[in-house]
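Consider the tokenized backbone below.
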């Protein structure tokens, strides 16, 4: 039975604010809140039982109206930068099980098939994950691991420079993963999916009300598959739990744990196919006409990863609507990758004794399998304290956001001993193009490793932002942040033919950097919001947690984003559109001095400019739409001293001119719902811009859902890549990772 609304009165309580003070998080945090005219500051905070019982209002539909990617809860119309939100409902309907799958549903995203096999994400052509721009509930989540969506309520993509909010990184934007939170109700659901390639996945989401203001939320996932549709076997499991007390009260406390264990295989990629021998630029370079599931690595290859997180948070709600939120997260990550670099064998090993090109490719073509390890560990501590509230000063309403954060990050990287150094190096057999999945393996347990490097850093930042309402339809925004970071990198080198002596060399980096954001909002009605903004960002030499003699004393790279945009809502509030024109410029980019290769300089400059559009929500009776589109006609290396790779005047790598997605569902009667959509990505060059571009592509997905009884199970059929399109999903100069082929998935959902 629902209880009537009640007014909160404050009572003395302990606070994580004490912990924040102990960590050096001095001061409250000021933040912008909602877009509506300020209410009198003396009004009490009112929380209703009904609101505390419900999930996020955006979680069960495609349209999102608010976000916490700016650290304080804000209406999207009050954020003067482009934000795309993928809700839980959209992830369920399109069967999006990983972060990478989900980001494909947002415009401007591309992927690099990096040397370490990690999820190297690009936004507007700028590196995202390699600069640590992935966050979970607003806290930086910098480690490389294959993130799963089983406990996510939404994924938010903030586009453009964002160092004023987050510190280092953020040239292209930032991604925030929002985990599910406890609610004051008892409910749950179980999903069981059966898919192509013996893919079985089970997901549990259970919320249990434990008292008047307490609840527990539990999530679990288990998945096994012979193939993910692109040559990688899957074996992963995860569990997450969050307990909250004081839900909806003056003081709310929450503790959460998260564990994800990936024991997956890895398809490191396939070599590009050229029409002529040699490494000269070849505009006709293409992918091989193979089934996307074809796998030529070793059966013993692996990409194991583990993520463990403990998160504590405290929310204090002030009379009048302000919030002070303090969070602390301890995390530990482990990664053990043993991949095969698949390449064409030398001409002498081929049946016709000639180099492999398109005209000589045949089932008996010989492929070699090299070795690409990535063995590393990472430990992090992140803490932040943020205040958001509305105040009346000098006759104006000010929506204030301020806060402080600290980060302690440690990373260790191991390297395998070579045979010359006394290590055991298993011999990998060659294979043939006509015999994929040959089952060959080596004993990876024979390899021995040593500590190759350590990276330790401490960082702290403070910021303040004010959104001042000058008149009912016009607001001005200004924000400023200061960051301090000190990093130390230790390199442990050994001779090429012995394990000793170990030469330990240290490199240090100290960064003190200001960032700012400014903007204006014109909101002539509750359904219209127009904005203009400018924001800066910086990223340090230690982005990848690696320093050397050439870059240790190099100042940060700097960038600026300029944007004009609008958010327009339908009169009934069920449909929303977002438009933006932007220009992102990296003002100071690291380059290697061509005359002195061991010196790195900030002599580079590049920019990208284009148009973005998002559409989401309900159109008419029973129709739901989500669309995201970007046109990036301008992308250029303006200044560069490089004499190879991406040269001055080139279009940067991994910047397709067009990216987009469209998804539409339609209810038919009370029992059926159907969906269909497409994903598109234009031509783009791999990294180092080798003089050609990989083909663009369009894939299609469909869905059918049947719910015979309102209180019974739901059955959903998804077919992704309906036409089994062959394309390169992640690109590198020497190889590509194919996109997943056609996958048919049947999911049964039972709610209780």
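A designed sequence for it:
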């Amino acid at each position: 039975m629902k209880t009537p609304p009640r007014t909160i009165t404050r009572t003395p309580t302990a606070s994580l604010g004490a912990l924040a003070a102990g960590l050096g998080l001095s001061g409250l945090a000021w933040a912008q809140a909602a877009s509506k005219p300020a209410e009198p500051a003396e009004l009490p905070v009112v929380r209703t039982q009904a609101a505390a019982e419900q999930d996020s209002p955006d979680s069960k539909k495609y349209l999102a109206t608010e976000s916490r990617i700016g650290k304080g809860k804000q209406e999207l119309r009050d954020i003067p930068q482009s934000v795309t939100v993928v809700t839980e409902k959209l992830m369920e309907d399109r069967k999006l099980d990983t972060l990478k799958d989900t980001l494909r549903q947002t415009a401007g995203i591309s992927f690099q098939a990096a040397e370490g096999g990690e999820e190297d994400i690009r936004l507007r052509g700028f590196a995202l994950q390699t600069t640590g721009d992935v966050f979970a509930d607003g806290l930086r989540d910098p480690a490389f691991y294959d993130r799963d969506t089983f406990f996510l309520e939404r994924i938010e993509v903030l586009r453009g420079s964002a160092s004023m909010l987050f510190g280092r990184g953020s040239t292209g934007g930032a991604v925030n993963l929002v985990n599910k939170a406890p609610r004051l109700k008892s409910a749950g659901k179980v999903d069981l999916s059966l898919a192509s390639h013996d893919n079985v996945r089970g997901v549990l989401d259970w919320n249990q009300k434990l008292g008047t203001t307490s609840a527990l939320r539990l999530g679990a996932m288990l998945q096994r598959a012979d193939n993910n549709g692109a040559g990688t076997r899957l074996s992963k499991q995860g569990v997450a739990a969050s307990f909250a007390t004081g839900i909806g009260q003056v003081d709310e406390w929450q503790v959460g744990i998260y564990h994800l264990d990936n024991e997956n295989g890895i398809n490191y990629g396939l070599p590009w196919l050229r029409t002529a021998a040699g490494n000269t630029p070849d505009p006709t370079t293409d992918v091989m006409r193979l089934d996307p599931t074809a796998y030529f690595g070793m059966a013993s290859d692996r990409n194991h990863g583990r993520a463990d997180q403990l998160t504590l948070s405290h929310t204090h709600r002030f009379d009048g609507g302000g919030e002070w939120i303090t969070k602390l997260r301890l995390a530990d990550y482990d990664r053990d990758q043993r991949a095969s670099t698949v390449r064409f064998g030398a001409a002498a090993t081929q049946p016709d004794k000639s180099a492999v090109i398109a005209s000589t490719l045949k089932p008996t073509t010989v492929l070699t399998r090299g070795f690409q390890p990535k063995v590393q560990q990472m430990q992090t501590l992140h803490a932040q304290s943020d205040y958001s509230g509305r105040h009346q000063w000098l006759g104006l309403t000010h929506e204030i956001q301020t806060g402080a954060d600290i980060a302690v990050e440690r990373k260790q990287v191991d390297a395998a001993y070579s045979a010359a150094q006394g290590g055991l190096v298993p011999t990998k057999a060659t294979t043939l193009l006509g015999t994929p999945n040959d089952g060959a393996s080596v004993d990876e347990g024979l390899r021995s490793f040593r500590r190759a490097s350590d990276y330790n850093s401490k960082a702290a930042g403070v910021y303040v932002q004010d959104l001042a309402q000058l008149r009912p339809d016009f607001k001005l925004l200004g924000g400023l942040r200061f960051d301090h970071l000190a990093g130390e990198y230790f390199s442990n080198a050994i001779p090429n033919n012995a394990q000793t002596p170990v030469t330990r060399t240290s490199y240090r980096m100290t960064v003190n950097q200001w960032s700012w954001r400014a903007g204006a909002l014109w909101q002539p009605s509750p359904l219209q919001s127009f904005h203009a903004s400018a924001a800066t960002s910086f990223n340090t030499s230690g982005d990848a947690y690696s320093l050397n003699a050439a870059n240790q004393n190099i100042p940060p790279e700097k960038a600026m984003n300029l944007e004009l945009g609008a958010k327009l809502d339908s009169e009934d509030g069920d449909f929303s559109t977002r438009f933006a024109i932007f220009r992102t410029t990296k003002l100071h980019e690291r380059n290697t001095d061509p005359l002195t290769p061991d010196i790195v300089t900030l002599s580079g400059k590049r920019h990208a400019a284009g148009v973005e559009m998002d559409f989401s929500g309900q159109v008419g009776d029973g129709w739901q739409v989500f669309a995201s589109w970007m046109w990036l006609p301008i992308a250029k290396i303006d200044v560069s001293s490089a004499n190879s790779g991406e040269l001055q005047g080139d279009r940067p790598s991994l910047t397709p001119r067009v990216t987009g997605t469209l998804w539409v569902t339609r209810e038919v009667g009370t029992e059926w719902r159907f969906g269909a959509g497409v994903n598109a990505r234009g031509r783009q060059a791999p990294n180092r811009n080798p003089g050609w571009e990989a083909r663009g592509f369009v894939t299609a997905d469909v869905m059918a859902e049947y719910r015979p009884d309102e209180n019974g199970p739901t059955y959903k059929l998804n077919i992704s890549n309906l036409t089994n399109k062959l394309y390169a999903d992640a690109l590198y100069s020497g190889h590509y990772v194919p996109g997943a082929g056609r996958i048919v998935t049947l999911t049964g959902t039972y709610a209780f």
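The helical segments are 16-22, 49-53, 88-93, 99-103, 163-166.
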